[in-house]
Amino acid sequence: MKVTFEKYNPSWKIQFESIKNELEESIGFLNPEIEHIGSTSVEGLSAKPIIDIMIGVKNAEDLDKIPHLLQGQDYVYYEKYNKDMPYRRFFIKLINRPKNLGFPETIFKEEDIPEKLHDHSLRVAHIHAIPVSSEHWLRHIAFRDYLRTHSHVKQEYQQLKEVLSKKEWYDGNDYNAGKDPFIKREERNAVQWYMEHHK
Fold first, then answer.
1. Distance CA 131, CA 79 (A)
2. Which end of the chain is more exposed for a tag (fewer CB within 10 A), N or C?
3. Taxonomically, which superkingdom (predicted)?
4. Do 162 and 46 touch, CB atoms closer than 8 A?
5. Exposed/middle/buried for 139, CB within 10 Å: 0-12, 13-18, 19+?
């Protein structure tokens, strides 16, 4: 597979706000922090047109409340990732729930998903629920803010993504592995910068 990018689109901010409002209606009583992260949150950076959203909860115990609260909406819960990343709950939001495929009006689990739904063109958002005290919360926020304020790093990331977009990948995880060395290096720089500027 090839990864398709789009030039930065101001509508991504609007999409994020719309989904944030929807999430707040479902889980607002948990008092979450809901942040737009990833490439679609960085003005001027090309990206896959899928909005990355991070839900920050105060307590790790709240993570397992979220799947139930999102039942019956256009979300798919990827429970299989809990084993490798127990600090996170991962969901995708579908552009439209495919009622014509005969699914029940409840949240999907990944083992119930037909192959067609793994098509990224059917997704509008990836949603990551993480405790705000987690190092993973910090690194995502720091990396986003670092790209927003360091144009040379943003440009280097843009160039890397353009090179990787020309290659064939087995799947999205394979493509992410191609970005990994750059992201790990710059995340370390970003966290250090963030901690120095947010004391």
1. 17
2. C
3. Bacteria
4. yes
5. middle
Query: For the chain, how many structural domains are there in total?
Result: 1
Closest CA to 54 of 91, 15, 28, 18: 91
CA distance 131 to 86: 11
Main-chain dihedrals φ then ψ at residue 33, nearest 5 degrees: -95, 125
Q: Which helix (H) or strand (E) holds 98?
A: none
Using alpha carbons only, give the angle 172, 177, 179 rounded to the nearest 5 degrees. Answer: 100
For 112-125, the pLDDT digits (tens) are 555 555 566 778 99
Euclidean distance between the first and the last CA atom of the chain, given in angstroms as a whole number: 43
CATH number at residue 20: 3.30.460.10
Q: Is the residue at 1 inside a domain?
A: no
User: How does pLDDT run across 25-65, given as a tens digit for each residue?
Assistant: 999 999 999 999 999 999 999 998 999 999 999 999 999 99
Domain span holding position 22? 11-197
> Does the residue 40 lie in any domain?
yes
Beta strands in the chain (DSSP E): 33-37, 51-57, 75-77, 89-94, 108-109, 123-131
d(CA 104, CA 119): 20
6 within some domain: no
The pTM of this model reads 0.88
